[in-house]
Amino acid sequence: MFLKKYFLILFIFLLMPLSLSAQDSDTKAKSLQDASAIVGSVAGSGGAGLPGGNVDSIASQIIGALFSLVGVIFFILMIYGGYIWMMAKGNEQDVDKAKNIIRAAIIGLIVVIGAYAITAFVLQMLIK
């Protein structure tokens, strides 16, 4: 019952960034292209020594890599918690330890996704 509540919260936080990005996708893409063109013109043809040439692509690559790392850590913690739970053999302390690991992994993922959703929303409002 307790995990079902966390699953619902996780599901809501996963869908929130999608609903935020679904609004004005053409306008957002155009504003990002305009910002990329401005940064490219300021940085010059050399790209200010940065790989990839523009700041927004580098930032998106870094954020994507961090989210991949968070996803891998979440997956490992879920597998580890499930393994401990399956190997508990009725030992209540091990079952509680496994539940706490799974609960903490879900809460951590919710916090990371929530922080990203809030940051994306604030940046979207600042761009407008």
Q: Could you give the topology of this structure?
A:
Blueprint: H1 2-21, H2 25-43, H3 55-86, H4 92-127
Helix pairs in contact: 1-4, 3-4
Summarize the structure in words.
The protein has a domain of 82 residues. The protein has 128 residues and is an all-alpha fold. The chain is 84% helix and 0% strand.
Question: Brief description of this entry?
Answer:
The chain has 128 residues and is an all-alpha fold.
Distance between the termini: 42 Å
Q: Could you say which overall geometry the principal axes of the C-alpha atoms support?
A: elongated
Content of β-strand: under 5%
| Tally of DSSP helical segments | 4
| Average pLDDT metric | 76
- The gyration radius over C-alpha positions equals 20 Å
Low-confidence stretches: none
Helix content: over 70%
Question: Which class of secondary structure composition applies to the elements?
Answer: mainly alpha
Task: List the keywords.
single chain; mainly alpha; 84% helix
